[in-house]
Amino acid sequence: MAFNEVGEVINNCQVSKKGIFHMQIRAPLIADAACPGQFLHIRTAEHKEPLLRRPMSIHGYSSADSRIEILYQVVGRGTEILKRKKRGTSIDLIGPLGSGFKITSNAFCQLVGGGMGSAPLKSLAEELKKRDNSLKILIGAANSDLLPPVSDLESLLGKEDELLISTDDGSRGHHGFVTDLLCVSDSLKHRENFIFACGPEVMLKKTADFAEDQGISCQVSLERRMACGSGVCLSCVLGIEDDEHDEGNCLARVCTEGPVFDSQEVEWDGNW
Prior knowledge:
By secondary structure, the chain is of the alpha/beta class. It is 15% helix and 35% strand. Strands 4-3-7-1-2-6-5 form a seven-stranded antiparallel β-sheet. Strands 11-10-9-8-12-13-16 form a seven-stranded mixed β-sheet, with helices on both faces. The radius of gyration is 18 Å and the shape is globular. The mean pLDDT is 92.
């Protein structure tokens, strides 16, 4: 169930010189209902502009202290307004929205994130660790300045877990794409392999191809421009393969049926 809730900003601080911010918000109804992979629709309007809400992935949540978190980068008018939100100010939210990740247990899980698309991985990693999963977290970006903060992810790691960084220009970690770091685990006996990915679509497609080649279950979180966030405007549809229909393929709304999909259901667009 989604709620229209007026939250209170707890903290809003810059965590990267490239304009990446981390905001914590007190919103008890949303925090109690959230799950990994869902998102918020945030009203950023000042004097009725900008008109449309902004979709933001839920970075973290805690029902114990009624807190939700988002990561965002200042790229336009809406996020510029968010940047100016001070502690104690109100913020109009709708959430949690969408269908999140299906959480597995006692498995080897690779979490793959690209740039700001990595935001959902914190809450996902927290839930996976509660269910005795081993984690390999892979975070990539074009360069080191565009990497999201990883300290929260590092604090979750156990002895058999690892976190690897990649940058396209080699300024930090592996010199290359984050998908270069994907692997198949054969050392953890009796544990299935799973992949969870969020980020740019070209990265998701490469991850999906790897998963299909290796026979690994893979869930991907897709990003689309959306106006309503509730499935009415149909601005965020994508093609999916649907074996239940005679025609084979159909459309799904990222804001409601997604944003998380089985990677083998997605009709990938573009030339990769």
